[in-house]
Amino acid sequence: MIQGHGGNIYQVAEALGCSHREVLDMSSNVCPLGMVPGLKGMLEKRWGEVVSLPEVDSRSLRACFAASFGLLESHVLVGNGTTEFIYTIPPALKVKNALIVGPTYSDYADACRAFGIEPVFCMAREENNFEPILDEIQSKLANVDTVFICNPNNPTGRLIPAEPLKAMVSANPNVCFVVDESYLPFIRNWESHSLIRDRAGNIVVLHSFSKIFGIPGLRLGFLVAPSEIIKAFEPFKHPWNVNRPAQVAGVFLVSQKSFIKEVADFVQKERDAFLGYLKDLDSLCPFPSSVHFILFKLNGDLNAPELFKRMAEHKILIRDCFNFYGLSDRFFRIALKTPEENKACADVFKKVLT
After folding, report:
1. For residue 70, what is the domain's CATH number?
2. Statement to judge: residues 224 and 98 lie in one domain
3. Across-strand partners of 295?
4. Which of 23, 215, 255, 316 is the most exposed place for a label (fewest CB within 10 A)?
């Protein structure tokens, strides 16, 4: 059972004795603009399709996604969120020795341990604002067969530029690089930073629709890799792993590139505004982020679990980062919402921390 993820508004609402709709969720790092306009209406019109089985292998969606990036269909898999792939990678790729670039999303390590693999870590350091040092990653590759990199990283928001990352992949052909790009579309001109079109034979790219399009409840993710790697997943594929509403939503969303640009522009502007509201709070230390969520460290006596409780009393949910290996109980994460909600959150921070 996965524990410690953000977005647990139902548990918080139950503890407060209120509706979950009254809780402002700043913990779950999904799209701050909500769903794409038109998606809900399209799903309502096609709701009758749930009486039939979905496409067994999501072929229509796979074809649309591949065409949008100039890929072969045989290089794409569609999954029940990227989580499905994360937990399939260790057995499919016969991982024996894994390296995880951290501090990062805990599911990479959890997936490895589920198959008896104890991963090693290459940790970015606080004194470097959690920027990954590629030379340090390179120095640890001699004894590993698989590397997990979240890019941009969760929870730090740091981005490894495409060119040096490609160079490292090319220099280590015997190592498989799993690059999770779930948050990359939140960056302007994100495709220029992506490895999704890279032709290297030792790379697996994970891509999510759940985050950028604000549909985490539909569970929709993609895996892009060379045909040889895709074949390794065949024994582990389940029929009908993606439900019909998610399939039809995915086909609709493939073409929504203007919405992605709108989100990225909003994030750039609103992130600066949110940090401006908090600039006079000496008890908060924000770290540079390229995306819509920001990692903070608390200075002073208050720790993140206590801050979580105090913010929850005001019906605001933040992400305590206690289960990110390498971070202490001084760290928490905030994900941006609407301008009004961000201002409301900042005002509560000022009440709680001053």
Report:
1. 3.40.640.10
2. yes
3. 333
4. 255
